[in-house]
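Forum: Protein Structure Q&A
Topic: Joint prediction for protein chains with partners

I've read a bunch of threads here and the consensus seems to be that you should model interacting components together rather than docking separate models afterwards. I'd like to see that in practice. Below is the full input, 1224 residues plus whatever partners are listed. Could one of the regulars post the assembled result?
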Amino acid sequence: MTSYSKGAPVADELAGLAGLLYELGLLKRYRRTGWLVAGVRDPESIADHSFRAAVIASVIAVLEGADPERAAFMSLFHDTQETRTTDVPHLAKRYLTTTPNERVTEDQVRGLPEPVAAMLRGAVGEYEEKTTPEAVCARDADKLECLIQAVEYREQGHQNVQPWIDTSLAALQTPSAKRLADEALRTGSLTWLPRALNGGHAAH
Amino acid sequence: MTSYSKGAPVADELAGLAGLLYELGLLKRYRRTGWLVAGVRDPESIADHSFRAAVIASVIAVLEGADPERAAFMSLFHDTQETRTTDVPHLAKRYLTTTPNERVTEDQVRGLPEPVAAMLRGAVGEYEEKTTPEAVCARDADKLECLIQAVEYREQGHQNVQPWIDTSLAALQTPSAKRLADEALRTGSLTWLPRALNGGHAAH
Amino acid sequence: MTSYSKGAPVADELAGLAGLLYELGLLKRYRRTGWLVAGVRDPESIADHSFRAAVIASVIAVLEGADPERAAFMSLFHDTQETRTTDVPHLAKRYLTTTPNERVTEDQVRGLPEPVAAMLRGAVGEYEEKTTPEAVCARDADKLECLIQAVEYREQGHQNVQPWIDTSLAALQTPSAKRLADEALRTGSLTWLPRALNGGHAAH
Amino acid sequence: MTSYSKGAPVADELAGLAGLLYELGLLKRYRRTGWLVAGVRDPESIADHSFRAAVIASVIAVLEGADPERAAFMSLFHDTQETRTTDVPHLAKRYLTTTPNERVTEDQVRGLPEPVAAMLRGAVGEYEEKTTPEAVCARDADKLECLIQAVEYREQGHQNVQPWIDTSLAALQTPSAKRLADEALRTGSLTWLPRALNGGHAAH
Amino acid sequence: MTSYSKGAPVADELAGLAGLLYELGLLKRYRRTGWLVAGVRDPESIADHSFRAAVIASVIAVLEGADPERAAFMSLFHDTQETRTTDVPHLAKRYLTTTPNERVTEDQVRGLPEPVAAMLRGAVGEYEEKTTPEAVCARDADKLECLIQAVEYREQGHQNVQPWIDTSLAALQTPSAKRLADEALRTGSLTWLPRALNGGHAAH
Amino acid sequence: MTSYSKGAPVADELAGLAGLLYELGLLKRYRRTGWLVAGVRDPESIADHSFRAAVIASVIAVLEGADPERAAFMSLFHDTQETRTTDVPHLAKRYLTTTPNERVTEDQVRGLPEPVAAMLRGAVGEYEEKTTPEAVCARDADKLECLIQAVEYREQGHQNVQPWIDTSLAALQTPSAKRLADEALRTGSLTWLPRALNGGHAAH
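Posted by a regular:
Agreed with the consensus. Here's the joint model:
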């Protein structure tokens, strides 16, 4: 798919690539800041969130007739700038002027082999433009993942997550995401378990 | 891309989809068992691992001239069976007979809208067959991610991670993954940081 | 009580014994998997559970006129196979075929001095046969401990533990365990504290 | 073994028993204080320690020709007073005058059915008298468990645990505990794993 | 303000000072014991509590017309003895005879430069005497901080914190602390957030 | 000391004050971001840091002949803006334009009784101006606290903290802080313990 396969990365490019993989390890250590505000002691990582968001993006995309692999791919990278910006919570946005994600990504891909750089730039750029069906699905996935996590925290006892549910729900664009959100709110985080124990058939 | 877009999921299908998203939440709570063996008190989640593995898969795929989105997509789902099987550590495999991942996935997609089910079956099946270039890249990504995490844990003080490094390294198939592993071992988890502070240019 | 006291363990046996003690350290790091399913972020260890189960076994045994030391002793070892099998949750049993605990223990005691091996084999074998009064008490202790822990998690906010309470309660065999379960459900995890502050006398 | 089996506990006794089981749950939440001094962020619980100490007591007792069930039984209860006294670290003993453990236990068993109370009093009393072979084995188990945990923490990176190793080693009384300690120090926490992967046979 | 500025500390004094700063690091690792009793898995540190208590002391002092810096200063040191005594929970006070805090501090300042020693002795002595307005404010701050933390834990799901609220409330002495407690109970831990998002103006 | 004592706060002011105390609770939940970069899994809170920084500020101030209460008071508030801005790590400062701390504090005190507002404004303003001796001591305390914590993390195994030590050391201004830093680096985090066990006298 690219002409890149003609040659291996040179030494500096290899260092850049290894550095990128270590840099993204920060997303496994950084926590989602909003949950700390909501009172969660040791919340999910940004990587945790991004993982399920990517899966959700693919599901929404299928239901919406969009390309699920592309939607998932964008979701995978949608918060990767946070290794450099951290996860800035809602309130902090009144006090911090942020750099556009495309420019952060530009810094992150400096020195990488051009095909890798182009791949990341492309995914981030399309996500930030918010126009392709896949970008819309990926953005809905970000919100729906947050809503579902909020329900899970609520079932763990946390009483302050309602604003995260409301805000996420209100931001959804696609009919499929809205239906999934309603269903997630109507049921709960362990409704699937008796079905699974029953072999996937509806419980009687 | 599918004929599915003709209609929204029926009620049972919606319940199945919401259930799937909650089920995958388990991967945010389940820890990677091997690290507990190695002595890590509260290690990364399976979702943490899957997130970076998917990114790595895309990078390896680009370098190998394979399709990065497909490779990342397979990586995303490569451990999703572990909601039902848990992450069985090496030693436990002497004592537990496992079900093939394809069959676990078959149970997981029961009752889902067929396009979603087909998407998951397809990703898992290709990954388990280990034949397409993308599957090979995704499998290497799983190993390389483990190696990189082991280095990170070693830098945090853990002295028992060498077997995880050795095993992961020995399992790599693609030249690109091997080069990245060598580079990751040669440098370390924070080598990228001074470069980043310097705007992406090599430090002097 | 054994003819073993004639001689100290030989070098290989010593290595085996030290290895056993380190191996059981895994039970302090492995978490009880079911609670992760229920939504507990960082639940009790298997060792935590086994400790209280052993105490409970002795209490039930006294009440039932059985040998409390034997019941506690079996409880102590009732999950020791999980260093090799992990704590397989309910759902995973559909997908994993397990090895009988007696055979796992057989591997664990290989190379140990025979009196130690016999002691472990004996405790595990009797527990798994489920016939002696002490084995019945120890098995009830396992369930009652789970129920009590579920109540404690419920008081910490967790709303999904009811199935663990129901299942544990339904599995109890002895009248004493049933009475203790009813009382534990009727009261709560801190009812004892005002009494203790009052010197052990009932509060007025 | 007791005349108690003639009748079920009366209501107040039942409340006392359920209270005891909840009270001992504190040992699953209380951490071993010394490790906090040594720099461990979230160390093992008192229950974690008591579990492995009880197993170790049985092993030492077998090797010493003592009764392993009795030794384990005493170990199980050797720190149960800490629900009321907490785990007082070495330095704090200069500042806090403690109550003898037998008297704490006396308060803990007040209102319990007499056979249960007698069982606990007996175990604690014998442990505190330090004269029977089983008590000596149980006391050595407490120290050896601490030493082994210190080695585990050292392998996790902690550099301040040597005093805990030295003090534990110096306190051991029985030849078997001393041999096990030497072996534990000579090997390490994961030496058993390759042997276990090899089916219990010595690695080549 | 002191004649101390004439000379730098001698070597032993420097060692003492560095030792003091490391010793106080224990307050960042020690947890507040009462919350473990209440069921909180990994509660706040003593340093966490002392920080907000000091801020609260200054606020109460301003409202009461007392010296806020002096009140905050005493609060800062009000639990520093716990590096040596640990945080003894209510129940443990039946079993442990404690040393007066002034005498613990006396040990802590031994070998320090006299001006530093005098500063710590003065703050602790005044706090323990409970007579100056600033000491009364600082003592109220200790209680009010506990009440506010209890409300926060309650909103995180913990159902057993009411006794901590009741006891703290009943112990308050100053009108300002009582008013603040009533207001804290009337509102909740995130009422301030919409106001802050609205720029500090009351929400409409 | 203020004319404020003439009257109690009005309702809106009370709401503002309670809100402030809850808002500062965020500093107990927010972690110090730099340590996450360095690889610490669950690092100290901002409140943890602020507590010890305030103590250190008072010690430095005494040694420097400045007012220790004022220095400690400024330290207490030196990171309170981070409830609104989060703890922005070094790298993020390339991407986020921050608001001056004085302006953040201005928002935080809006609606508070004027004497409280003035107190906070005063402490923050003086700290940010960096000119008074007490402000210099408080700023050194911030750096020295970071250095000491880095040493503690290094002793816990973390191998990536050297840049935090170097940067902190280089930023120190006062002779006393420099001497304390040298001594802290020369000794280590538990050197004080044998002395304390020995009653405060130098060990032999």
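Strands of chain D lie at 96-98.
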